[in-house]
């Protein structure tokens, strides 16, 4: 936004919109916390759709906005060896992140239950 040429009115509108979404989200979460059931089919579908859309946006940003400029540079375009090493590095990075996600998914429930038990013990006593 710093390099874009926006009028002062448009900048003020964007700042207001950005700064009002977090308090609105907090208020919405507090309001819905009494009626929210995390194991209901509707909640599971909504969480799955939101997770899928955020993963898709992350992939788009990584592949199109970040990696495309690197892979389309003249240094990489002129060297086939450098292209191969760049593709190998991207694949190893994606594989490493996948393994880390699998590990986190496997141990997340036990870490969460331990933290919940610990906080319950600390605040109750």
Automatic annotation (TrEMBL):
Entry GO terms, CC: membrane
Cell compartments where the protein resides: Membrane
Transmembrane segments: 12-32, 44-68, 80-101
Keywords: Membrane, Transmembrane, Transmembrane helix
Membrane topology, as annotated: Multi-pass membrane protein
InterPro entries attached to this UniProt entry: ZIP
Predominant place of localization: membrane
Protein name: Uncharacterized protein
Species: Cinchona calisaya
């Amino acid at each position: 936004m710093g390099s874009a040429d926006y009028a002062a009115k448009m900048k003020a509108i964007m700042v207001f919109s950005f700064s009002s979404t977090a308090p609105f989200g907090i208020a919405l979460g507090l309001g819905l916390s009494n009626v929210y059931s995390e194991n209901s089919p509707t909640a599971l579908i909504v969480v799955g759709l939101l997770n899928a859309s955020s993963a898709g946006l992350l992939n788009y940003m990584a592949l199109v906005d970040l990696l495309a400029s690197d892979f389309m540079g003249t240094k990489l375009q002129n060297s086939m060896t450098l292209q191969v090493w760049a593709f190998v590095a991207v694949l190893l990075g994606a594989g490493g992140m996948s393994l880390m996600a699998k590990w986190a998914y496997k141990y997340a429930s036990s870490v969460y239950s331990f933290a919940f038990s610990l906080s319950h013990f600390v605040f109750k006593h």
